[in-house]
Amino acid sequence: MTIGLLLPQSSLYPTLPFDLVEGLRAGLDEVSLADTKLVLEGIDYGTNPANVQTKAQKLLLQEGADVVVGMVSKRVGDALAPMFATANRLLLVLDVIGEFFSGQPSASEAPTSHVYYHSLQTCAGTWLAGRDAAALGPVIQTASYYDSGYLQGYAVSQGVAAGGSTMGQWAISPLKTADFTLAQLQTGLEQDAGNSIVALYTADMAEQFFAGYVALPPHRDVPIWGGPLLLEEQTLAKVPYQTEGIRGYVAWSQTLDNPLNQRFQEALRRRGRHPNLFSLLAYEAASILLTYLADLSAIDQLATSSFDSPRGTITMNATTHYTSGPLYEATVLASDTGHCRLHPGAPVSTNDPIDHLLAQGQLNTYANWFNTYLCI
């Protein structure tokens, strides 16, 4: 068996390609597919669908890949779908954001028939944060220009609506570090635009938010919910603990106390890698591949598949072809070093955000970015 891997680069998480490759290799070992051949193709940031299609075609035709795994955006995944349907092969997309409710191009065959997405469900997490924040009244959403280009911001507003409240303000900060400011958020707080904040920032932009929020002029305390990537553990470990009570929902934590999580982390450390969200995503993908490779002619069996993972039971949604699993209520606390650490609480079902977002209908028009999330 041969597995092709479409491998992106990321300036936000420079270790991302290594995390994906070693996570997948560790997962293949776990499910007794260690002898499977792995062929890699770099796709830069994955922004050029034609280039990605050329790389995928090479994996299928020249390398004889039985399945292709890639971290690409949903737009690119939809563009690749007809080729994979023609080849009768699976494209398994490693997905962080979970934009399962975005529109699909029209085609004679459903474009996702040979494309499945294994997801960390960021949009479901931001929906839950918006719903919780709405209990206090109008909500301010603050986000970087980059993060606001994805549908997680829409998911926040839908969560707020489901919680019975309204958006009081959208405060968007510039992308470049040199231009970063929370001036819009400061104005909103001074004008009492909302009773709570949902903050969507990633990697170094998350660090800028934490530092910038502490530096704002004194204002009344406003509860803060963070998006799942604001609460990512590698990021929190770099941030001094100065703002109390930040909470949110996360897909996974290294502190989840279960045997599968321990085995995953031990497997990554044996490979010289620090286990994180992205190596976990690739590690779990091996369980999906095990089901598919057992019978290449029965790709439809994936639509109702499930497996146990370090973060709980993962189930494929037959309607969206996206995996779903529990999210965990989480709070940011102080570590022994004085930095932030994540404290995960009870698992929460993602059925409510998935059902609500699907009920709104497919969104055919939004930002025109082909970047997959994290890949700039």
Describe this structure in words.
- The chain is of the alpha/beta class.
- The chain has 2 domains: 190 residues, Response regulator (Rossmann fold, 3-Layer(aba) Sandwich), CATH 3.40.50.2300; 161 residues, 3-Layer(aba) Sandwich (Rossmann fold).
- Helices cover 34% and strands 21% of the residues.
- The protein has a 7-stranded mixed sheet with strand order 7-6-8-9-10-14-15, sandwiched between helices.
- A hairpin with a 2-residue loop joins β11 and β12.
- α1 crosses α10 and α2 runs parallel beside α3.
- It is globular and about 60 Å long.
Features:
globular; 15 strands; 34% helix; Rossmann fold; 21% strand; signal; 376 residues; alpha/beta; seven-stranded mixed β-sheet; 11 helices
